[in-house]
Amino acid sequence: MIRAELQRLVGTSAYEIWLAPLELESFDGDVLYLRAPPATEKWLVGRFGPVLDRCVRQTLGTHTRVTFAGASSSPHASPAGRSGPDRDPTELNPRYRFEQFVIGEGNRLAHAAALAVAELPGQAYNPLFLYAPPGLGKTHLLHAIGNYVLDYGGGATVRYTTAESFTNHFITALSTKALDAFKHAYRDADVLLIDDVQFLASKARTEEEFFHTFNALYETGRQLVLTCDRLPRALVSIEQRLRERFEAGLVADIKPPDHATRVTILRKRAAVDHISVADPAVLDLIADRVPDNIRALEGALIRVVAFHSLTQRPIDRALTMEVLDAMYPARRRSGPPSIAQVQSIVAAHFSLSVEQLTSASRASAVAWPRHVAIHLARDLTGASLPVIGQAFGGRNHATVLHACKRVSERLKTDQQVVDEIATLSALVSARQADRDC
After folding, report:
1. Pairing with 152, which of 49, 164, 378, 413 sits 20 to 30 Å away (CA)?
2. What is the pLDDT at residue 1?
3. Cα distance between residue 277 and residue 40, in whole Å
4. Which helix (H) or strand (E) holds 114?
């Protein structure tokens, strides 16, 4: 009766997409507990919470209410998800499984390695270090390993957490004198999954504890899997002994998906969420507009479906173009940036003029920004060393090489420089894309 009333109130299309997947968790006479897909639960509560409450009260009585069970009651919660001071607030997402992971050329090695680790924890690759920019699926693989081990690991225990949660948990354990419980929570796990290890940087006491946790697990043949947004050697603010351990197993990267893989990801997401897309060109359009981030790719699809649900318009090319034009304007393919663009962005970043940047001044406030600009010009523009030297005040080949060497040396030891170069590279790329619109 509740489902029929919901379908009448919100319409068949919105009901089939968003409300039909809801599952009944339990009912205690006063509260109806529902389970929603974790990825859309928050949006569902905000969008359909009031209408759910109204339907339940009309059907079961005015004293009843609706709540969502959430991840805390998931059958796939990590063993540390018990009550008590050592409970980790992060848990495995049951939607993130190997079956839902779309394999492409950019992630084939990472997927194969993750599956091997899940099948033979502690025997295949230990540690497994997955690195990629945000939104490319490394967290999906991390959760997939945990879910696989819980399902097929013969009772093996899994602990999933983020580096930030590990840090917070450690600080709490220190302040409450609960270090023994903290150590047992992590060192007793058969498989330890740590997300975003770059956030351990510059936290000396946490690094020390993580080092001993790593050793305790590794030396007893237990599996460690780590994710990061950069290579271990680029984590220059993390102790060398930890970086060396990160590199001791298999380091696998994940690259942005190609167009065919992006379409497959969208098609699979549509199937999982029971989204009917009559015109396959819709998925091609979305894949064209969102090339570099799977999370944004799926978000674009959800936005199109939400717009369809709210307006009752069909999911066709016209609707998709309207939604995408607002969020992801079409861009022409851009060529490499010019040396002048690099100079302009670097000069502005360091509060200099381009004339100062290319001048003969050897003052440190000018020399280092000039080295950075030359390094980026060589890395991003494809120009030859003589051409770069000429653009920087007629400097010779050896001077350009010296500037590049200075920056490369700093990149090995200074995390601030690593982050600064990454930021400037992104700014140059964004400026070039804007010019090509």
Report:
1. 164
2. 65
3. 19
4. helix 108-119
Please give the model's pTM, rounded to 2 decimal places.
0.63
> Do 143 and 64 share a domain, yes or no?
no
Q: How far apart are CA 62 and CA 76, in angstroms?
A: 34
Asked if residue 134 and residue 20 are part of one domain, the reply reads no
Instruction: Please answer whether residues 97 and 116 qualify as being in contact, where contact means their C-beta atoms are separated by less than 8 angstroms.
Output: no
Listed as own residue / partner, the contacts of 53-60 with beta carbons closer than 8 Å and 24 or more positions apart are 54/9, 55/2, 55/5, 55/6, 55/9, 56/2, 56/32, 58/5, 59/1, 59/2, 59/5, 60/2, 60/32
Judged by average pLDDT, the poorest of 153-162, 272-281, 287-296 is 272-281
On the question of a cis peptide bond just before residue 337, with omega within 30 degrees of 0, the verdict is no
Say how far apart CA 226 and CA 213 lie, in whole Å: 13
CA distance 124 to 150: 17
> Is residue 334 scored above 70 in pLDDT?
no
Structural domain boundaries, residue 265: 259-327
Q: Is residue 211 part of a domain?
A: yes
Confidence class for position 40, pLDDT limits 50, 70, 90:
low
Lowest-confidence segment of 155-159, 186-190, 415-419 by average pLDDT? 415-419
